[in-house]
Structures are given as C-alpha cells and as structure tokens.
Design goal:
Layout: E1 27-31, H1 37-47, E2 51-57, E3 69-71, H2 76-83, E4 93-99, H3 109-129, E5 137-141, H4 159-170
Parallel strand pairs: 1-2, 1-4, 2-3, 4-5
C-alpha cells in the first residue's frame, strides 16, 4: 500500500522578514479564479503599491473591469496576447489561479472535463507562451491535496501538480 510508504506532511514555516525599503513596485498578471482569490490577491498587491491585470477564462468570466482581459483556454494566441506588455514594463510575475477558487464544488463528468481543459490546458498554453522569458510563474491550487488528515479534496486539479513539477524541472 502506498500510504504505508509515503505520507504528505505539511510543516508550518514562518515568513522571512520583508525588505520593503528595497522593494520597487511590481506589475503582475493574475490568471484569476471566479471565487475571489484573484481579486483578494489583486487588492493586496495594489495596497502595497503594485499594479496588476486580471485575466479571466472566457468560459465563465465575470463582467470585466477596466484593464482586465479575457482569455480562451483553448487558444494559445490568447495567452501570448495577454503576456504582451504593449510598451509597458515587463511582468514582475504571473500568478496562475485557474486551479483554485472552486474548492468544495461538486462537479459532474462534463464539468470535470471542462475544468481540466481550462486549468491544465490553460497552464500548458501559458507555459508555452512563457518559454523564452524569465518571468516567474506562480501556480496555486485549492483542494488538490489534503492539508490536514481526512480533509476533503478536489482531485480535478491534482494534475496541475504534475505540470508544476515538469515546468520547474524544465526551467
């Protein structure tokens, strides 16, 4: 049995002290979920003086705000267009939240396929668009692994962890 050999144990880590005096404002591209995590992150970034662009999936995007973009997860060119800073400074980082924000939602078989196409297919197209740039890519999932024993999981996003391992090995 696998559980007799391997066990995932999360260990709490203290955050390192931030050197705010040396930090310059950044510019972030957030591939936002529809559950509010991306909006909360954007607000926190704005509070510390950073700017951001929210990129929503076209298969369920809310009403777009000023500066927000809509990306079709099945069109690689949409990812390349979202990454193009159009004369602005380069991105400080990209946060990929299309594997977060729907924690605890029951999905039927059709929804699982659409969710994986959006989250995994989208990450594939994003990684391809980023292939020749040094921009940091941060990937977040919600519920893909249990943080506490017997906690409910959302395994539909677990394959993103394999993509994360591959992209970090390729870097």
């Amino acid at each position: 049995r696998v559980n007799d050999v391997y066990d995932i144990v999360w260990q709490r880590q203290e955050r390192p002290a931030a050197a705010d005096s040396e930090r310059r404002p950044g510019r972030w591209l957030i591939f936002s979920d529809c559950g509010g995590i991306g909006a909360s992150l954007a607000a926190a970034l704005q509070q510390r003086g950073d700017t951001y662009t929210l990129a929503f999936s076209s298969d369920g995007a809310p009403t777009l705000g000023a500066g927000d973009v809509q990306v079709d997860p099945s069109h690689p060119e949409d990812f390349r267009a979202a990454l193009d800073p159009s004369g602005q400074s380069a991105w400080s980082g990209i946060v990929y939240l299309w594997g977060a924000g729907d924690d605890g939602v029951e999905l039927d078989v059709r929804q699982v396929g659409a969710t994986q196409e959006r989250s995994i297919g989208g990450l594939l197209h994003l990684a391809q668009a980023l292939a020749h740039t040094p921009t940091p890519l941060l990937i977040a999932t919600c519920g893909a692994q249990a943080v506490e024993p017997f906690a409910p999981t959302q395994p539909v996003h677990a394959p993103l962890w394999a993509c994360l391992l591959y992209t970090s090995d390729a870097a």
